[in-house]
């Protein structure tokens, strides 16, 4: 894992890459030199809301199921959604889940994140994230995401509103 590859261009601001994630990972790697090789990213198959089984798919917009484990032993970790929002968070015990509920997605995550950046958390390009001013290049009725390279076509849709009124004849 080379953190220099996912470092945002401007200190304190997210662009293609999340400043909060970069700052967090840098901080925990500085604390312990061995964490760089031990750090694992897990997908938790066990829903944090209702306990249902959640199969892994590449739509990581549900950051609540992603866990950053700095020690790689499935005993403690940080929740990705909190890291992305705050940049720092509390270390939680992972003992409440069975080890088989945690799927190691470390290599996939860092490969994809390096390629497409924060689009990994917003695959539908709904634009809910901060720091997205330069995310798109607009050309007529199309736009290109400057982070992942995906093109989107804008359609003009006619919206008809039916209004019912009472008329006395």
Which labels suit this protein?
single chain; 169 residues; alpha+beta; 5-stranded antiparallel beta sheet; 4 helices
Notes on the protein architecture:
The strands form two sheets. A five-stranded antiparallel beta sheet has the order 4-3-2-1-5. Strands 6-7-8 form a three-stranded antiparallel beta sheet, with no helix packed on it. The chain contains four helices and eight strands, in the order H-H-E-E-E-H-E-E-H-E-E-E. The chain has 169 residues and is of the alpha+beta class. Strand 6 (136-139) and strand 7 form a beta hairpin. The chain is 21% helix and 17% strand. Helix 1 crosses helix 3. The longest helix is centred in the first third of the chain and has 13 residues, at 19-31.
Report the sheet with the most strands, covering strand number, pairing sense and barrel closure: 5 strands, antiparallel
Q: What's the order of the H and E elements?
A: HHEEEHEEHEEE
* Count of individual helical segments: 4
Low-confidence stretches: none
Please identify the structural class as seen in this structure: alpha+beta
Strand content: 15-25%
């Amino acid at each position: 894992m080379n953190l220099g590859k996912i470092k945002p261009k401007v200190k304190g601001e997210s662009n293609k890459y999340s400043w909060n994630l970069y700052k967090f990972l840098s901080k925990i790697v500085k604390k312990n030199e061995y964490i760089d090789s031990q750090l694992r990213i897990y997908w938790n198959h066990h829903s944090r809301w209702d306990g249902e089984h959640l199969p892994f798919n590449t739509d990581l917009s549900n950051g609540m199921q992603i866990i950053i484990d700095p020690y790689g032993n499935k005993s403690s970790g940080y929740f990705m959604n909190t890291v992305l929002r705050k940049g720092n968070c509390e270390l939680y015990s992972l003992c409440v889940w069975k080890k088989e509920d945690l799927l190691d997605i470390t290599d996939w995550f860092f490969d994809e994140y390096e390629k497409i950046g924060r689009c990994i958390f917003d695959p539908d390009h709904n634009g809910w994230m901060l720091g997205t001013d330069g995310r798109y290049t607009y050309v007529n009725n199309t736009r290109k995401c400057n982070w992942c390279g995906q093109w989107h076509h804008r359609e003009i849709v006619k919206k008809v509103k039916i209004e019912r009124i009472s008329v006395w004849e």
